[in-house]
Amino acid sequence: MKSQNIDNYRLTSMEEPTDEMLAQLMREAAEEAAYTNREATKRYFDEIKRAAAAY
Fold it and tell me: Residue 43 CA to chain centroid, in angstroms?
């Protein structure tokens, strides 16, 4: 079995990820979700401010 690297591992692989790789994948997904959530929240409140100013 060849050594797995997080940069080339795919969830569709037939090999199970190591605990460290899985933890890193989950951490990166959580960071991306948090960033996306912050951006969406900012856009939401910006839109509310624009709507309130136009009213």
Answer: 18
d(CA 4, CA 48): 47
How far is Cα 22 from Cα 32, in angstroms, rounded to an integer?
15
**Distance (Å, whole) CA 37 – CA 39:** 5
Does residue 9 sit in helix, strand or coil? coil
The pTM for the full model equals 0.67
pLDDT tens per residue across span 24-55 = 999 999 999 999 999 999 999 999 999 999 98
Residue position matching structure tokens 């939401």:
44
